[in-house]
Fold this sequence. Notes:
By secondary structure, this protein is mainly alpha-helical. 58% of the residues lie in helices and 6% in strands.
Amino acid sequence: MVPVYSLSPRTLSLLASVSERIGEVHAAHLHHPSPLLRRAHRASTIHATLALEDNPLDRATIAQLLLGNTTEGSNAAELEVLNTMRLYDLLPTLNPFLSQDLRHAHGELMHGLALEPGRYRTGDLEIIYGNRPGSRKATGRNISSQVEQLLHFADNDEGPLLISSCVLHYGLVHIRPFTAGNGRIARLWQKLLLLRQWPVFAYLPLEGFIQRSRTGYYAALEHADRQEDCGGFITYMLERIDEALHELLSRERPILNAPDRLSTFLLGKNLHHFTRKDYRRAFPELSPATASRDLAKGVASGTIECKGTGRVAWYSSADQ
Length: 320
């Protein structure tokens, strides 16, 4: 069954705040970070999400593993990191609404760490909130049907995607479709749903903010179970998203030069061709002359190609 939820005034206020901050992120061109910053965020994200599962490795060690510095005979802690890294690389190919992709993701995530990775469990499962036993068991009946209903809801819900993603996260934790790794896959699946619309969620270290308040995270899950209403959990998750976006926007915003602007534009667009007007729409602070110089430098460097002249000129990426 799809989880029931109610929306409080606090939740609606957070929804407006998060939506506004996402707009600011895009206006500041922070949704496509440099490769160096992207690696740093990934190390932080993997560290936080595995720390929630009591993985003992620190962030520096995980950063080294990201660079390929593995040891012989990797232990279970390192294997958790390597599996998570591999799954993050697969994210762009996965569909959050397909159960076979969910099972495939779990298989990659828990390879060598759990019995029958990628397969739904068949028996009942004791509920644990962090390190504290819960008040119920997760039934082993109709797991496939429960997951299909939840994914169908996420695919067809007409409400705000931010809300739907939180319901999806809670629903997967509530169902616990696998014998292990359910929290990790639930957090990842919310990320996957959100990044399809907002690229910033591909690297926003949301898990770090959950890990900082892990007691609140498990308390919100337990409260939702007891109340049979996940509205409080939605509020908790929107608070963490709002905090993560606020921190991102509070950092020194990068000053982009012409190559950086063009690279950011090409990374964020899926256009066969574009005009100077399209380019200026992405950077409204630029004058027509500056936009023209940016594009001319891109042509000279071989980054883009130009057809036509003057106002009728159009451009395309040299890689297409």
